[in-house]
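Give me structure tokens for this 182-residue protein.
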Amino acid sequence: MKSDKLEETELAMLIGKITMEWNLVQDAVRYCFLMTMSGDVKAAAAILDAIKSDDTQRNVTLAAIQAAFDADDQIALRTKAAALLNSLGELSGKRNAFVHSSWTREGDGPIEVSAFLKKPHGSIHGMAPIAEGVETLRRLIDALDQVRNLIAEIQSAKRLQAHPPQSNPTDSADQARNKDAT
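Here you go.
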């Protein structure tokens, strides 16, 4: 069996890692907003800094994505952004529950969430806190990868908006002749 000090150290480190990973996820969401706003750093920062809630920042980012990429051929980008940013809300709840819970230990007992005169966070079950934290951290790492992929898709879509593919007049003429021939 692990020593009490080791388990407490693991829990403290896990809380720190989860906090840091969440900050990276939220920074990546802010970067999505920046890219959607065509890289106007001052405007993007002024808008998002005025919004204190991570949830509202995600909602504003999603609204910007939906407005900026409203073409029919950009439905997949909008759908992916909506699914991802909405899923971050649920993951935010898991992170909040883990990081902001009142962790305690009575005597030689296990580390658990304190429920003294308060209701413990619903998503923490207290039976295996380290395992729950590791799973939350794993999900955060996966979410960061997904947001980074979204950033790449936004950048690609912005490039296409700035430089739409040029049609070849020869191809158009050939297509018109083929259509007339049929």
